[in-house]
Design a protein that fits this description.
Largest sheet: 5 strands, parallel
Strand content: 5-15%
Number of strands: 14
Radius of gyration: 30 Å
Shape: globular
Oligomer: single chain
Low-confidence stretches: 299-303
Mean pLDDT: 93
CATH class of the largest domain: Alpha Beta
Order of helices and strands: HEHHEEHEHEHHHEHHEEEHEHEEEHHEHH
CATH topology of the largest domain: Rossmann fold
CATH superfamily of the largest domain: HUPs
Length: about 475
């Protein structure tokens, strides 16, 4: 709304300038650039314009004289927006908005309610925002919570200004970490059934939640998985484990106020044959080659044995070419991800915005180069990195490691905040803190600060503003002033 008012006043000034120039009152050949600003002092009006000062050198006239000429040309019919126009200091033009216009604005705000302020900048263009997309190998942590808050707000803002934006979550339920979870469940399952010495996998997930998953499986199905061969058993545990954890992730995100439009599974991408289609498409474009090492001076892949299929990603800005098909004929982990991203555009999105965790920074150029090779322009895919969150309690940072089973979950954060305030407000506090800093910056989330009712807590100012507004309504009632109809 402020920008709209500024635009209207700038147009009023341009009209006045045109008249002054046509009447030879100002020695200008064309209308100069007009910019207005919001003054810091109330006495200087609602909107100020320093045009008199800006044009003094060009016109060789006193700034105040220029301001007087412009003000004299401003029509009286600029009402009801403007109440009065004053010249201040050496040549500032100060505009005061009329009370009648402000009153109508308030009525308009009340009538439009939550629709007020929305516009159609986006013209219905489709944007997909993929965020959180945590591996279904454990509870959501606070970094996931930060991504959830930021991603959700991005979608809200895009939809408010006329875009057709959607929230999407990609579950990595078919990669190596999903199978690491499956082997972890198997170990706990067999240990609980009496095989106390059954080894826990080195790359497994030792969190207590894995043991709870194994207990649930035993309660529901008993020992039937011991009768299966290992491959079948691990596949069953992968599916069960991922499904249970994804369901829990959905519940926590819903509690956090985030509802997704689409949940996309990596397994469904693989089953659809899309990874093979991507390989074929890149090969047809001439961007693949077979070798036992990458080409170029910056070849940094030293662990490859045998002939692999490489993508010429250096041609599109990546620091080195990437293996897409290993020497054993299997895809590398990036292939399903490329297929998934290409599928986003195949579904008709004009732009895609990804929010990735801090450990994915080196992955950006790889994905960008793949999309460029497939005909997706650089500005169609925007990738934001959401940096680390450190949870502070009494000034000390809590240690977190999903691999070691030590992490602070989003659910824990909400629970701890809700011990001191209503849960709805606890969620608001968490979201506010997650949104305070740019996603590129590390965030220290001080729990003790978040629950304080003191000036040091930034959320307190929002509460205070609300309390002041309520006190205004109370005074209106005491004085018999009626509210807006």
């Amino acid at each position: 709304m402020l920008n709209e008012v500024k635009s209207q006043i700038e147009e009023i000034i341009r009209t006045a300038l045109a008249k002054a120039i046509s009447q030879n009152q100002l020695p200008l050949r064309k209308i100069p650039e007009v910019n207005v600003e919001q003054p810091k002092m109330e006495a200087h009006g609602d909107i100020a314009c320093p045009l008199g000062l800006n044009l003094a050198k060009q016109t060789k006239m006193p700034p105040r004289k220029i301001a007087e000429i412009i003000v004299a040309q401003i029509d009286a019919n600029c009402e009801p927006l403007i109440d009065k126009v004053e010249i201040a200091g050496p040549g500032f033009i100060n505009f005061f908005l009329s009370n009648e216009w402000l009153y109508e604005l308030l009525k308009n705000i009340r009538t439009q309610d939550t629709e007020f302020g929305k516009c159609d900048i986006g013209h219905g263009k489709r944007i997909q925002v993929e965020f959180v997309s945590a591996n279904p190998t454990g509870p959501l942590n606070v970094v996931n919570g930060r991504a959830a808050a930021v991603g959700d707000v991005i979608v809200n803002l895009l939809n408010a200004v006329g875009y057709n934006a959607e929230r999407e979550y990609y579950t990595n339920d078919a990669g190596g970490q999903a199978y690491a979870l499956a082997h972890s469940i198997e170990a706990r399952y067999r240990q609980l059934l009496g095989e106390a010495d059954f080894p826990f996998p080195e790359n497994g997930y030792p969190g207590e939640y894995v043991k709870e998953l194994a207990k649930e499986i035993i309660e529901q199905d008993g020992k039937i998985y011991l009768e299966m061969d290992e491959k079948e058993r691990i596949e069953a545990f992968r599916q069960i484990g991922c499904a249970r954890i994804v369901e829990e992730q959905k519940n926590v995100l819903k509690r956090f106020g985030v509802i997704y439009d689409v949940w996309m599974s990596e397994q469904s991408i693989r089953d659809s044959g899309k990874p093979a289609e991507i390989i074929k498409l890149l090969a047809e474009k001439g961007y693949l080659y077979e070798s036992d090492k990458p080409s170029g001076e910056k070849a940094g892949f030293e662990s490859m044995t045998g002939v692999a299929t490489w993508f010429k990603s250096t041609e599109f800005g990546d620091e080195e070419d990437r293996v897409l098909i290993k020497s054993d004929g299997t895809f590398t982990y990036i292939v399903p991800d490329i297929a998934y991203h290409y599928n986003k555009f195949a579904r008709g999105f004009d732009k895609v915005i990804d929010l990735w965790g801090p450990d994915h920074h080196g992955y950006v150029d790889r994905m960008k180069s793949a999309m460029k090779a497939l005909g997706i322009t650089d500005d169609q895919l925007e990738i934001l990195i959401v940096q680390q969150v450190n949870i502070l309690e009494k000034g000390e940072a809590k240690r977190m490691s999903k691999r070691k089973g030590q992490f602070y979950t989003l659910s824990q954060l909400i629970d701890e905040l809700a011990e001191n305030v209503d849960e709805r407000f606890a969620v608001d506090v968490a979201r506010y803190f997650f949104l305070m800093l740019n996603t590129n910056a590390h965030l220290d989330f001080d729990i003790n600060l978040a629950i304080q009712q003191a000036d040091e807590n930034p959320v307190f100012y929002v509460q205070y503003a609300h309390a002041r507004i309520c006190s205004i309504f109370q005074k209106m009632e005491e004085r018999g002033v009626k509210r807006l109809p």
